[in-house]
Amino acid sequence: MTSIFMNKLVLMRNTNKRKAKLARGGKCIICGYNKCLAALHWHHINKNKQTRYKHNGASCNPGKLFTVNTVKALKETKKCALVCANCHSEIHWPDSRWLS
Question: In whole angstroms, how far apart are CA 80 and each of 34, 57, 70, 97?
Fold first, then answer.
């Protein structure tokens, strides 16, 4: 792929990700963080309803899925909560009680 094509692809993906995050409030639903959209992650609320998409043999999260298929990505983000990187780490930490 040419670098011009890749630049357009990255720009389109980032624009779509930005629109999706802003449409969901543009902030962490737990702490309200809203300084940087790149620091906001999609967290699947119910892992059983998560669709496993593959791209080039690798599993895709909603953020990466925007590169492949925007419609599927938007559908998948409806199953997610928008949380900041810190809150997302705390959600997935096996025992976050030690923090208190």
Answer: 17, 23, 15, 24
